[in-house]
Amino acid sequence: MKINILHMYPDLLNLYGDRGNIACMEQRLRWRGIDVETHCCTCREDNIDIENTDIIFIGGGSDREQKIVCGRLLEKKDMLSEYVENDGVLVAVCGGYQLLGKYYKLEDETVKGLEILDIYTEQGSPRLIGNVVLSSDFAERKIVGFENHGGRTFIGNHTPLGKVVVGHGNDGVSGAEGVVYKNVTATYLHGPLLPKNPQLCDRILTQALKRRYPDFKELAPLDDSLENRGNEYIVNRFCK
Ligand code: GLN
User: pLDDT of 88-121, one tens digit each?
Assistant: First the structure.
């Protein structure tokens, strides 16, 4: 078995160790004896072999970088929408999350989004910064991470990734964080997200494996004691 990961625009969108999410997915596949290859699509070279793509990752970036990348992403709008509607696995963090929506409204301009999710984002003040702990239907353990965003994201009827226990979340008031839609996991959590939340990582890997190999049942368990200790440390530190 083999999984192909596509990292979109790491030359512009790669804040707070977002690349660590790719390293985590790669390693957790290799530990199970599953081959994995990561391809990058950058501003210089952005041909995409979507048929052979199993997981797309889009990281976060500053407003400036997002504006640059949005034009490039919009050229691929139909291809990416079709991929998602066909149960393609997509993980988007912060700026990448915002770009999946209808628009990101800044003080002086509006950045058009991919309209894959029925959400929109508006810049606000102050920035929402700090550690985050979520309770989530998508992981038995708490999901932990770090957020730093000016944008407030309004998710309408979408299902959030989790409920904020500590932190600000999508808009600072609703108590919702992120969006889960089909095989899309979108979130403000950097840090990176997946090494500290191995259950979430395995959920994403399982989605990709089941889509590529319809007979695939489940991932072999791993010894996650170290990862779980990291996760628990954050929970204990901020939930007391
Ligand atoms: N530029 C966006 C914001 O500030 C996203 C930042 C990020 O990816 N950390 O809302």
Answer: 999 999 999 999 999 999 999 999 999 999 999 9
Q: Which atom of ligand 1 is nearest to the CA of 61?
A: 8
Count Cβ neighbours within 10 Å for each residue of 72-84 and write b for 16 or more, e otherwise.
ebbebeeebeebb
DSSP conformational letter for 159: B
Atom of ligand 1 nearest to the CA of 190: 9
Length of the chain as a residue count: 240
DSSP structure class, residue 158: P
Q: Measured in angstroms, how far is the CA atom of residue 203 from the centroid of ligand 1?
A: 25
- Per the structure, the count of domains in the chain is 1
| Residue 14 belongs to domain spanning | 2-238
CA of 107 to the centre of ligand 1 (A): 14
**Residues labelled as active-site residues:** 94, 190
User: In this predicted model, what pLDDT tens digit does every residue of 21-75 receive, in sequence order?
Assistant: 999 999 999 999 999 999 999 999 999 999 999 999 999 998 889 989 999 999 9
CA distance 116 to 100: 5
Ligand 1 centroid distance, CA of 149 (Å):
4
Does the pTM exceed 0.85?
Answer: yes
Question: Domain with 163 in it: what CATH number?
Answer: 3.40.50.880
Measured from CB, residues less than 6 Å from any atom of ligand 1 are 15, 60-63, 66, 94-95, 148-151
